[in-house]
Amino acid sequence: MRIGFIGAGKVGFTFGRYIAEKRELVREKTDGALCLEVGGYFSASRQSAELAAEFTETCVYDSLEQLCEYSEIIFLTVPDGQIGEVWKSIKDLDIRGRIICHASGAMTSDIFSGITEAGAFGYSIHPMYAISSKYESYKELDNSFFTVEGDDRHVDKVCSVIRALGNSCVRIDGTDKVKYHGAAVFASNLVTGLLAVSQELLTQCGFSAEEAQRAIVPLFLGNAKAAADRGTVDSLTGPVERCDTETVRKHLNALSGDERSAYAAVSRCLVPVAERKHPDRDYSGLIHLLNGIGEFNYEEHDGNTQADEGNRQEDIHDHSV
């Protein structure tokens, strides 16, 4: 199966090199039943296509017509906002029997309007991995989970190709695509936002920007590794896990604006995790505090319940962040 890429950015570079590197492995795993070949690239920028072709040891197509003629799978690896326009450029070409894919996390295969009439089959294929480098990200795709959404007729074939590459793959419904992408954003981009807030708060405490970076990174990576290795429930530590309402109140008093709102919102998300870890604890006082942002003055509000105090005493020697 020859694969052609329209678009020579980070995703095109990464997918192309990753598939090219895995070609012999796929052939061996399938006893020769599946042969993948990266044909080459077409891009609005000839130079970008040439660089991608050089990186993957493939070719540059001179036109969309040529790429469509020689490709069984056509991957639109362009920014989300350009997928529709690129599709319009190829939908009237001879693409009968072709599998047309894009790699958007949020968009579905519905962007390929009229694809059935064109005799082709549309899919969205997305790796749960942040592709950040044209030349390095392909090295990290081995453990990435992929999702596939699209036409029933060849979806099993598409999934089998991804699994032959060595990746796990799940099919999702188009109606769930935006929620799925939101889940990925929570685990990726929003975590970066929280890290930025943390570093900013440290600079307000007298750290230089470089010192704040060095101080936070070991904590950040250690917690991420613990959550990845042991799961969110077993790895959870900190004042929400301890039901330390007084510390949470002090944090809220020290923060303002978006920082305080983010702290409260994420803490509310942590409470159910803490409740699963300690089903015998009463988190009602903490929940009331977090739900009451903007409704009362935290310093004037009566402190913790007896249950809160008991929980803090129980964890007095466990003041993990």
Automatic annotation (TrEMBL):
Pfam hit, one: Rossmann-like
Putative oxidoreductase/dehydrogenase Rossmann-like domain boundaries: 2-127
Membrane spanning residue stretches: none
Chain residue ranges for the region called Disordered: 299-321
Source taxon at top rank: Bacteria
Residues annotated as domain DUF2520: 145-268
PANTHER family assigned: CONSERVED HYPOTHETICAL ALANINE AND LEUCINE RICH PROTEIN
Protein name (Swiss-Prot/TrEMBL): DUF2520 domain-containing protein
